[in-house]
Amino acid sequence: MAELQLALDDTYRWEKTAPDQLWMTQPTGDGDIETYTWAQAMDQVRRMAAHLKSLNLEPGSHIALISKNCAHFIFADLAIWMAGHVSVALYPTLNADTIDYILNHSESKLLFVGKLDGWEEVQKGIPAGMPCISLPLAPPNDYESWDSITARTEPLQGNPGRNAEEAAIIVYTSGSTGRPKGVMHSFGAIAASVDGAEEVFHATDKDRMLSYLPLAHVFERYFVELQGFRSGMQLFFAESLDTFVADLNRAQPTIFLSVPRLWLKFQLGVFHKLPPEKLRRLLRIPLLNRVIKKKVLTGLGLQHVRLAASGSAPIPPDLIQWYRDLGLELLEGYGMSEDFAYSHATYPGHGRVGYVGNPMPGVDVKISDEGEILIKSPGNMMCYYKQPELTAECYTEDGYFRTGDRGERDEEGRLKITGRVKELFKTSKGKYVAPVPIENLLNNNAHVEMCCVTGSGHPQPFALILLAEEIRPTLSEASVRTEVEAELEALLEQVNQEVEGFERLQFLTVVKDPWLIENGFLTPTMKMKRSMLEDTYGPKTEEWYGAGKRVVWEA
Predict the structure, then answer these.
(1) Which range among 140-149, 309-318, 378-387, 541-550 shows the weakest confidence by mean pLDDT?
(2) Does the model's pTM come out above 0.85?
(3) Which fold would CATH assign to domain 424-553?
(4) Which helix (H) or strand (E) holds 491?
């Protein structure tokens, strides 16, 4: 077996062979940008690594990092590794209590503070006396800055290496249930995952990517940061939500990753300008077909994309098909923090709508008698940090990780996710309902941005509906509300014809408030917090069931 090429080795290679090649493009505000070649970036990394070594921390110490995506997030990661330590990245949207918990639980010795929106909340969670370093683009603070440290510090010489068995990162889960768990990964596991992705997706230094999904999450860390080290692809960063379209057009990505909610928002944006039926009609005209497809993809900034993928949460099959009908082969992937997002992916040219794809190279998968997906992956974690009992519980006796997801496989080994083991709920008739397949049917409708099927202990389930962002402001108009209600009644009828009798929804409830990361309804990776939604709306359900309506509007 060939020796693994570890993350630091990848960066040393580009530093030596392509020092003047452009690596990163960072917006700095007001339309300005800063660019970094491999030589410029690695010079900064080496200077910060030398500073970290001068602190004489115990080898393998944990150093934390909280920042939105930016070039210096990746520079800090590399400096931490080059200095012989372990990186602990925190989501920039966490509340003060969770930040305090993670910094204490991880026993972090130092914190890099980077680009942030909610600095006041973040600051409350930083333990008193914790040493901090301020990255460029950080909010105003009293910490010593990255720039002042690197200006006075000589670069670390040589190519310090790490062993495959050493811990590289601790990723704290996004916390859809309970306290975040610290998932610890080794340099070897993350390198093996990169090897497999290279074999399937063939990224090169001619590829371009826009980094905007949280780098604290394994999906972006694995496919953007670490694939970037291996392939040498150009990385671009987004400045803000308001500048996203401009950032996307600057990058002109050839590889584009997103999550289902954003793929849906892109589609709804197209429908806002070009209603679905009119688009379908235009696409049926042979002479216009190619022109319309190109125009739509160019409007989305995706005209150069050769590889598009969705991950993090289930995506409705009809949404995947819609993009494929436009000529964008939207691939789906499946993975977890615990296997470094290295599990399954749709191989280009071998996709089946509704399935997340085949096992990645080196991944072994089986379905338990209870229908649970069990995984052996080269990317499997070392452990949950400081939770040996929980680590042991998550593995079968023969070493497979219990994913907690239910699934089935087709004759070609492609995997279909059918729900979460723990998401099953029982109606008062004693029937178990799997919510995710029903939610996928509802999410196919252009009026629905997100939904949650629930109803434990009631004769029939129901669904909470968050309407599309474009529709919400117009609901005060009686005619619009009447039209939307009629559309939802038709949707309810349609979905109920496609499910078993015990799964039929009694009604749909349209909720008032948006589901956001900020109000606790979504995780930092935009997965809904089912328990939070059920706790919030639970007290109102008896009233809704008693109303006897097909569509209920939350008061």
Answers:
(1) 309-318
(2) no
(3) GMP Synthetase; Chain A, domain 3 (3.30.300)
(4) helix 478-498
